[in-house]
Amino acid sequence: MSSIPTPGLARFNAAADSAARAALREACASETWGSLLLARRPYATTDALFAASDAAMAELSAADLAEAMAGHPPIGRPTPGDATSSREQRGMSAAGDGLKAEMLELNLAYQEKFGHVFLICATGRTGAQLRDAARNRLDNTPEQEREIVRRELGKINRIRLGRLVDDATDPADAAEGARP
After folding, report:
1. Most buried residue among 39, 49, 86, 162 by CB atoms closer than 10 A?
2. Phi first, then psi: what are they for 51, rounded to 5°?
3. Which distant-in-sequence residues (6+ apart) come within 8 Å of 128 by Cβ?
4. Is 46 helix (H, G, I), strand (E, B) or coil?
5. In this prediction, what percent of the chain has a pLDDT beyond 70?
6. Which candidate, 90, 81, 147, 94, places its Cα nearest to that of 119?
7. Which residues contact residue 25 at a Cβ distance below 8 angstroms, ignoring those fewer than 6 apart?
8. How would residue 87 be classed by pLDDT, with cut points 50, 70 and 90?
9. What is the CA radius of gyration of the chain?
10. Would you place residue 4 in the very low, low, confident or very high pLDDT band (cuts 50, 70, 90)?
11. For residue 130, what are the contacts with CB-CB under 8 A and spacing of at least 6?
12. 131 within 8 A of 103, measured Cβ to Cβ
């Protein structure tokens, strides 16, 4: 991103707590993560915001991570009407029926083993890459997966925060328009 403040970052810094909290909730469903980022406002740069996000991710408990993951649909099944999940999972939209069916089976096997959705930063990945990642991660231990999920959430949060502070809209308007 940038060490130069953007107009979007200035709006985020100046937004009422309720509007900023709603915008952060769209980036990550963890209340703890959002509260930690709110408490550290204002941010001088997007890099400072990203660093605060990374620090907040490192502090999340297992319950906080579960709350964050609950805000993510399974790979290959973006939330209907949610432009964010559709955009992030674009790589699966071009996948053939066989690959989509295989991904569904992998999602179910993953969820059965780990008790939560298979979470990966899907932005820029093809359907085959997502499938291969799901296959590979099924061999992990729950402890390994928890740390992988923490890193993947961190990547997703950075992308979403970048969109928030680069966006020309007010954080309250962005939060209202992000979900139906």
Report:
1. 49
2. -65, -40
3. 95, 99
4. helix
5. 88
6. 147
7. 31, 34, 175
8. confident
9. 16
10. low
11. 75, 76, 91, 92, 103, 120, 122
12. yes
List pLDDT tens digits, range 151-169.
999 999 999 999 999 865 5
Burial (CB < 10 A; 0-12, 13-18, 19+), residue 34, is buried
Note the pLDDT tens digit of each residue in 90-108. 778 788 899 989 999 999 9
Burial degree of 163 (CB within 10 A; 0-12, 13-18, 19+):
middle
- Tokens 């502090």 sit on residue: 59
Q: Which amino acid is at 150?
A: R
The letter for the amino acid at 98 is G
Spatial CB neighbours of 119, under 8 Å, sequence gap ≥ 6: 69, 72, 149, 152, 153
Q: How many CB atoms lie within 10 A of CB 51?
A: 13
pLDDT at 180: 33
Share in percent of the chain as helix, strand, coil (round to 5): 70, 0, 30
Distance CA 49, CA 7 (A): 14
